[in-house]
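Hi there,

I know you've been waiting on this one. I reran it after we fixed the sequence typo, so this is the corrected version. Both the input and the resulting structure follow.
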Amino acid sequence: MDLNRENISNLTSLWRLAGQADGQYYNNEDYAISSVAESQWPNKLWFHRSPTEKLLKVALTEYNCDGITIPLWQPDVPEEILELNGFTLKNELTGMSIRLNDIHDQSPRLDFHKVTDASSAALWSSLFLQAFGYWIKPSTVVLTMDRVNYLIGTHGSQAIGTAVLYRDTPKIAGIHSIGVVPDHRRKGYAADLLNHTLYLAKQHGASHATLQASSMAKDLYLKTGFQEDFLLKNFVKH
């Protein structure tokens, strides 16, 4: 199993789903674009092959790319192509994966609630904004919740964070949006959110889980048993 390819496939499938459900999605043999109006996600332009400067200019000319992020995971792509066209590095993420055979539920402190309606979708989006600092429209959550498990973690009466479980294939579970709101950080809740989501993925029949980790979160994933697989760089044009 090519876990790098499965990781990217899960991620881009989620972007595609959001654009098709609540925005715009365009795809050809060279690249794809998925965006949602009045939202900061997914809003991605990604390439199916290593982009040339000519291909980049074609994509930027044919589509309004204001607010678009371009992710690169191909190690042989010269970043100067993007920099010469006004893009700068936004962040670097590490693609990671784990086998789920030894995963057990280790999150007794939290209760978990799946988003099932507009009210819980609005709460999930609010918590996500607090945790990550950017906005996902509640309508996108509502329109995709039949395919995506949007989870809210609570401790007593307090909603403390978010998680997403998305399977684009039966054996691969994409783990996304593990986030804790500022007032409840440094209490171990991120590990609780992660462990429960991994256990849920295993219950659903997945054999592996994949994710993309920020530098801040990578230590948690390594301690959980994830392996580092590849580097993903996100570029934006201001």
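Quick highlight: The mean pLDDT is 94.

Best,
R. S.
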